[in-house]
Structure formats: C-alpha cells, structure tokens
C-alpha cells in the first residue's frame, strides 16, 4: 500500500474488534469506523439473541501523517447536500442484484450491496486510482470501481466466484462522474476573504444579508456584519451566534436578496468572484 493510501476492512461482531486491534498494533491510523445499518436484516429465528442488524467497517491509513484522499464535498453532494455521517442505512443485497447459481440459489453468501461499495470508493479514491480487493468474491468492488471509472485488481481463489465476477463486471457501464463528483474540493480552492467581495463591488457597504432563519444583518465597511441585537461580527461568528453554536460556516448561511425577492448565497457570489479572477489572470 502507498503511504498515502487507505484500507477498508469490514466485519461483524465476531471479528471487527479483533481486526481493529491488529491494525492498530501494525501501526495503522484509524480514521473512522463506519456502521452499515442493515435496513432489512435477516431475523434471528431462534430468538436467542438480538437480530444482528449492522456490520462495522474500519477506514484506516498506513500512517497518521499521511495525505489520504477524502472527497468530503462529493460525499456531501451525494448525500443530498448534507454532511455524510458514519452510520450508513442500506439494504442488504437481495433481489435482482443478488447473483444466483444454476439452481437459482444465492451464489455468494456474503455478497455486499453495490451502494455500499459506491460510497467507499467515492469517499476515498479519485478517477483512475487503483483499488485492490484480495477477497474478490462476487466482484462487487470491481463492479463499483468499473462504474466509477477506477481501476482495480481482484484476487479470488474460487473459480466459480471469479467467473461470475468477471461476467458481472463486463456488463457494467460507467456513469457520468460530473453528476456525482465535486471536481475541485473546497479546501483546494483559492481562499477568498469576505471583504474582497465588498472591495471589488460584488457586495456593497450597507447591503442587507439574509440568514437561513430569516434574520437580517448589514454589511459594514470593514466586512463585518452588524446585527441590531448581537452587535458586530464576521460572517462566521455572526452565523454561529444566531445558531447558538460554537462555530458555523458563514458562507453556507448568508444570502443576498435580489430586487425580485429571490436569494443568492454569498458562496455563489464567491464562486463568481473566483471565475472573474481566473479570467483576468488568463
């Protein structure tokens, strides 16, 4: 594995804790444990234990200081604009997605749903990256990788599974990544101070900004926001005060009201300013 690569390990309560201990002893730095909550788990027919309705996935990198890939904005967009959490509520693999043998029975007892591998791959890889799955099974990793324009290497000792995986992957059609992935993560974009939008006349001194809760503030000459009750503060601190939180991203909170009453977020105005700067530089 490359020093800046990442590894995902999945298991049930039978082995997840043991695997995590081994990984830490080997020096891996654990980034998250993701809980796959099975929305349609198999019941415990004997009634002797709770229904086992989740599996644990460990996401780790070889070293604490590694520059691993995390496509935060892509995952947020994939999750309908909300920050993706560490509990993933997904169905187990059933129906047409499940590979069957000649007798119509499930081919592989632990086939994972495509959606699970899509999230894993979108979270921590880029198009063209190579993904290794040393326990390839029915080929879900390869199918998701092919769909998302990643390269892969799969290792499987059972010839029946390998043949089924190969046939399955050959049927996969790649998707248009432009509809899924955020090409330039925000942390890699050029930094823009709020005052720059004012000094470059994309916003005006005395102009009113509207918050997501309907609250209104005025832009001061120094780029601070003025609230009738909360005083003066930056776009971030003022948003946090109104939300009653320790911190908040003001770019996501404030909008400008146009003459027709529609709202334009200051983050969209910031994007326009970046585009103008790029055009001028060119």
Q: What's the total helix number?
A: 8
Order of helices and strands: EHEEHEHEHEHHEEEEHEEH
Tell me the number of strands. Answer: 12
- Read across the widest sheet, the strand sequence of neighbours is 10-9-8-7-11-12
The CATH topology of the largest domain is given as Rossmann fold
What kind of oligomer do you see? single chain
CATH architecture of the largest domain: 3-Layer(aba) Sandwich
CATH C-level class of the largest domain is Alpha Beta
Tally of distinct domains = 2
Roughly what fraction of the amino acids lie in strands? 15-25%
What's this entry about, in short?
This protein is of the alpha+beta class. Helices cover 28% and strands 19% of the residues. It has two domains: 7-186, Rossmann fold; 190-281.
What would you say this structure looks like, in words?
The chain is of the alpha+beta class and 282 residues long. It folds into two domains: 180 residues, Vaccinia Virus protein VP39 (Rossmann fold, 3-Layer(aba) Sandwich), CATH 3.40.50.150; 92 residues. 28% of the residues lie in helices and 19% in strands. It is built from eight helices and twelve strands. Strands 10-9-8-7-11-12 form a six-stranded antiparallel beta sheet. α3 crosses α4. The two termini are 39 Å apart.
């Amino acid at each position: 594995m490359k020093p800046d690569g990442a590894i995902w390990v999945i298991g049930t309560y039978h082995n997840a804790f043991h695997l995590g201990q081994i990984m830490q002893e080997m020096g891996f730095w654990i980034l998250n444990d993701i809980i796959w909550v099975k929305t349609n788990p198999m019941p415990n027919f004997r009634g002797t234990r709770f229904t086992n309705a989740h599996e644990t996935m460990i996401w780790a990198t070889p070293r604490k200081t590694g520059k691993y890939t995390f496509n935060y904005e892509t995952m947020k967009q994939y999750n309908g604009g909300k920050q993706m959490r560490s509990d993933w509520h997904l169905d187990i693999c059933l129906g047409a997605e499940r590979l069957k043998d000649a007798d119509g029975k499930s081919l592989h007892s632990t086939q994972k749903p495509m959606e699970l591998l899509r999230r894993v791959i979108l979270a921590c890889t880029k198009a063209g990256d190579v993904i290794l799955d040393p326990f390839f099974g029915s080929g879900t990793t390869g199918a998701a990788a092919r769909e998302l324009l990643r390269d892969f290497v799969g290792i499987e000792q059972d010839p029946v599974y390998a043949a089924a995986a190969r046939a399955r992957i050959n049927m996969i059609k790649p998707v248009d990544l432009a509809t899924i992935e955020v090409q330039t993560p925000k942390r890699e974009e050029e930094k823009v101070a709020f005052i720059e939008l004012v000094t470059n006349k994309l916003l005006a001194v005395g102009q009113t900004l509207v918050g997501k809760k309907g609250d209104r503030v005025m832009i001061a000459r120094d780029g601070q926001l003025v609230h009738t009750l909360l005083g003066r503060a930056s776009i971030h601190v003022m948003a946090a005060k109104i939300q009653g939180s320790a911190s908040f991203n003001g770019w996501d909170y404030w909008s400008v009201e146009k003459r027709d009453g529609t709202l334009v977020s200051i983050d969209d105005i910031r994007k326009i300013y970046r585009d103008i700067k790029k055009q001028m530089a060119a």
